[in-house]
Amino acid sequence: MKLLAVASEIHPLIKTGGLADVVGALPAALSRHGWPVITLVPGYPAVMKRIDRTGAKGRAAKRYPALFGVDAKLIRASYEGRDLLILDAPGLYDREGGPYLDMAGHDWTDNWRRYAALAAVGADLAAGGLRHFQPDVVHVHDWQAALTLAYMRHGRARHVPGVLTIHNLAFQGRFEPGIFPALGLPDETYSVDGVEYYGGVGYLKAGIQYADAITTVSPSYAREITTGEWGMGLDGLLRARGGALHGIVNGIDTQEWNPSTDADLAARFTAKTIGGRARNRAAVEKSFGLDSDGSLLVTIVSRLTWQKGMDILASQIDAIAGMGIRIALLGAGDAGIEGQLLAAASRHRGRIGLRLGYDEAAAHLLQGGADAILIPSRTEPCGLTQLYGLRYGCVPIVARTGGLADTVIDANEAALGQQVATGVQFGPLSADSLLAALARAQALHADAPTWAAIQRAGMTADFSWDRSAARYAALFGQLVAAKRAAGVAESLAA
User: Fold this and answer.
1) What secondary structure does DSSP assign to 159-209, as a single string?
2) Residues 140, 215: Cα–Cα separation, whole Å
């Protein structure tokens, strides 16, 4: 069996969030279950530079002389064990800024075209457009790749199963109706049963409509997005497609995130040598300008947004510092929240350390040195930072939502008694519940044997991709069998 994955980013070549981590780590696990993967990604400057630097520039596999008005070609390459098809289209992707935003932080005005091109090429590959490669299943990720399924269903790949994974329903790829004629889809697809969405064009909506199966990145999130509260306008369609909707919790790359081998740590350690975290804690204190007094050290590695609950955190930051808790924060986002946190760091020197932006090495050190990681999200499809925390003995303090609820076992009396507790859950999200959760964590941290038991329970849990990849592989196999059976039935009927 062969799988084509289509995505807008992939770690370690290009990353803006957890999507890249998943797209980068899942193929190796799927291959162990009999599904080798080739991933189609855009040829952003960062991607092309990394491929060039390794000497693995690859070879041109196919040319598209007029792909949405630009000259493009496919480059086949391998990078750190990942088989890739890179869409090298300088007119679409070779520009300063991020994958989705320009240097001023605004959406590229032609994002509709940039990701329609990616989708069109994905559908061409699904139809056997590349010699010696015919995928049995196409797996697309988020809105940037979702339109692939519309092109497949109305093109030569209608009999190839397509799976859509929704990593975050909040990002939907909604565009003005005027772009529709340029997409090259049949006129009838501009309807409520096609790509039309509230009077415009919806890429994610189209993927949900045309997918043979839809997955989200945790069982709880799969339930939440069928509700009016968290369905973000798509809950009706998701309820209608409920039989095709599956929640499969994310895993993590256990080689990339391994405290016993991590070069970004000041000291490496295991669940049996957890005392080695002390050197990492000292390194965090030095790097973030924090006092070394043994009090609870909480890290936050997050986008500073409303969805992540950072407005609640900012409103309570003085109270948290007043509790004697230290904070080391790494992240960026809403300018107002950034300003509040910067001001608090200035007021509470030695208690609050703040670094705006994102730094992969710093994120590893924080997980390896902080006592706990705080994730007060209003909604969290899966979350990866709590899984990294569990792996590194950095106890998660999480809001009870989505994948956070599915992956962290609350340190209640029963769980503590059975020595299975791995963190602290709280909810519903409010200032009071946040402070109460931190107070609980503070009390647990003061009991050193109990805290160590919580750390070890998290570190010995299995959050590798293997179990989740097995579920994906089983789903893919079912879809292939169903498509083949349908094809036989059509032939007999004819």
Assistant:
1) TS-EEEEES-TT---EE-GGGHHHHT--GGGSSTTTTEETTEEEHHHHHHH
2) 10
pTM of the model: 0.90
Report the CATH fold assignment for 3-251+466-493.
Rossmann fold (3.40.50)
What are the tens digits of pLDDT across the range 81-132?
999 999 999 999 999 999 999 999 899 999 999 999 999 999 999 999 999 9
CB 6 within 8 A of CB 145: yes
What are the pLDDT digits (tens) for 321-375? 999 999 999 999 999 999 999 999 999 999 999 999 989 999 999 999 999 999 9
Residue 436's nearest CA partner among 323, 301, 353 is 323
Task: Provide CATH code, domain 274-459.
Answer: 3.40.50.2000
Q: Which two tokens stand for residue 353?
A: 């350390």
> Does 56 have pLDDT greater than 60?
no
User: Looking at residue 324, what DSSP letter applies?
Assistant: T
What's the pLDDT tens digit per position in 138-162? 999 999 999 999 999 999 999 999 9
3-251+466-493 shares its CATH topology with 274-459 = yes
Q: How far is CA 341 from CA 47, 97, 238, 269, 328, in A?
A: 33, 26, 37, 32, 11
Instruction: Name all contacts of 65-69 with Cβ < 8 Å and 24+ positions apart.
Output: 67/92, 67/117, 67/120, 67/121, 68/92, 68/113, 68/116, 68/117, 68/120, 68/182, 69/113
Q: Which residue has the tokens 């080695």?
A: 276
Indicate the domain borders of the chain. Answer: 3-251+466-493, 274-459
